[in-house]
Amino acid sequence: MASTRLPVIDVGPLRSGTDPERVAREIESACRDTGFFYVTGHGVPAALLARMDAAARTFFALSEAEKMAIAMPHAGPAWRGYFPLGGELTAGRPDRKEGIYFGEELADGDPRAGLPLHGRNLFPAAVPELRAAVLDYVTALTGLAQDVMRGVARSLDLPADYFAAGYTRVPTVLFRIFHYPPQPPDTDEWGVGEHTDYGLLTLLAQDQNGGLSVRTPGGWVDAPPLPGTFVCNIGDMLERLTGGWYRSTVHRVRNVSGNERLSYPFFFDPDFSAEVPPLPGRARTTATGEPRWDGADPVAFTGTYGDYLTAKVAKVFPELFEATR
Fold first, then answer.
1. Rounded CA gap, 50 and 66, in Å?
2. For the whole prediction, is pTM greater than 0.70?
3. Are 202 and 235 in contact (CB under 8 A)?
4. What phi, psi does 41 have (nearest 5°)?
5. Per-residue pLDDT for 289 more than 70?
6. What is the pLDDT at residue 290?
């Protein structure tokens, strides 16, 4: 494992407007080099994450029967709720984790409610405090993601609100809480196997137990928890939009800390119904390099983001996909 540290970017000057261009250039460098960076100066209260972390730990301490009361099949095509240990696949192999899927809580009558991965969340009756914590967190992270995407737009010499006025005016917002039991260091199991994220941007909070690693041009590097930060990485749709100028980066998780590990990935993605053609101007520059880990080519993809996302998630939960078709 290489010792290279991922860059740390203070987005405070971007959010305040005091020095957005400097932050944009730092984002460009990180996206071109590793596709991963830490975010500080984000303005998300530590108390909010602490509330959610406490509620999540209470949930995962429940009995299996209590957790399965909000199992994903109960949500139908909304694909929300709990999945048990080994219930999610990466590259066809079960992950060593359990978790809960959430998304934007849509009001009754919202026209998106009938779309896959949209609708009402499932919350556990035994942990009522989880609902408010999750919904408050999703709201806060949506605002932060829009801010970071303004920096991404500037890094591509586009207007700051290029994404907010278009692809993310009505974003696809997805949120997960993952629980990784401890595992021995000599196992060949992964908490999450090698993969890239599907959308534009991921913002990850993680507890003090490490396990995330990133494949950089110099080899695999750890992304340990840094207090007060989020880990940010770009996804397949930003690779497509930039014609490969920015590439989504392969990463994986193995929890060998000896403790349980909780992580909180927040996915900020394009409008579900939007097509995602390459961006204008310099952003269309095509990078050269080795083929992607999965042989796929997001740059060559045609269709809506919803088409891409649904096809990807169907491979993660194949039985659930068949049951909700």
1. 23
2. yes
3. yes
4. 65, 30
5. no
6. 54
